[in-house]
Amino acid sequence: MSQAHTALEHLRVIRSLMEKAHIYRAISAPAALLGGVLALTASVWPAWHAAQHDGAALFSNRTFLILWHSILAITSVVNMLLLAREARRRDQPFVSDGMRMALRAFLPPMLVGGAVALILVIFLHNLTLAALMWALGHGLALLATAGFSPRSLIRLGWAFVSLGLLLLLLWAANPDVRNLSSDLGPASIVMGLTFGLLHVIYAIAVFLSRPPQALKSEVVTA
């Protein structure tokens, strides 16, 4: 395949992705709402316990990893099921050229952020930095798809990066927080504000941005 043909094929895939961007935004909102609610639920109790007991941990680092990877798995499965249902409705393959292009852009920052976070938890026992790496990696992954994503997802990516950097600054500049007996509380706050609050705000904004009947009609006729 010539370079010119390859470039034209990439442009075709990008154009297709941009045309479907509003549909993907509608599909991703329920999964974002589910993930946001689960994240807020999982973060409030450990943060409240730490505030009431001078930073003491409610559970172990291992439980922290299992809890948040479970939430990631649940929301990923729900998102995949929604995408698969939409692919069946459009009579298209689930793993399309567009999905492969999106994954090539999305996965590298996600893998780096996830791997660095695991190293921080397992070897350095630093949950807060791990949570910040997850948030920053997720934000960069969303921004990596900016060439064909809806603007709402790009704004969500910038929100993750901006809030992640702000929380990193606040954590680094506050020795009282960094020197707590356990950083499960601060880490839970980071996870709740980013993966919880930002996803809930994103989902609500998507739901309110277009009347449900109009959106349904648009999806059916796409």
In short:
Helix content is 84%, strand content 0%.
Give a verbal description of the structure.
- The protein is mainly alpha-helical and 222 residues long.
- The protein is 84% helix and 0% strand.
- The protein has helices spanning 3-19, 21-52, 61-89, 97-124, 127-144, 151-172, 175-178, 184-209, 212-221.
- Helix 4 runs antiparallel to helix 5 and helix 6 runs antiparallel to helix 8.
- The longest helix has 32 residues, at 21-52.
Which descriptors apply to this entry?
elongated, 9 helices, mainly alpha, 222 residues, single chain
Question: Which percent range fits the helix content?
Answer: over 70%
Regions with little confidence, pLDDT below 50 for 5+ residues:
214-222
* C-alpha Rg (nearest Å): 19 Å
Counting helices, strands and paired strands, the structural category is mainly alpha
Topology order in helix (H) and strand (E) letters:
HHHHHHHHH
**Oligomeric state of shown chains:** single chain
Largest sheet: none
Give the N-terminus to C-terminus distance in angstroms: 31 Å
Name the overall outline. Answer: elongated
* Annotation field: number of helices: 9
What's the helix and strand layout?
Layout: H1 3-19, H2 21-52, H3 61-89, H4 97-124, H5 127-144, H6 151-172, H7 175-178, H8 184-209, H9 212-221
Helix pairs in contact: 2-3, 2-8, 4-5, 5-6, 5-8, 6-8
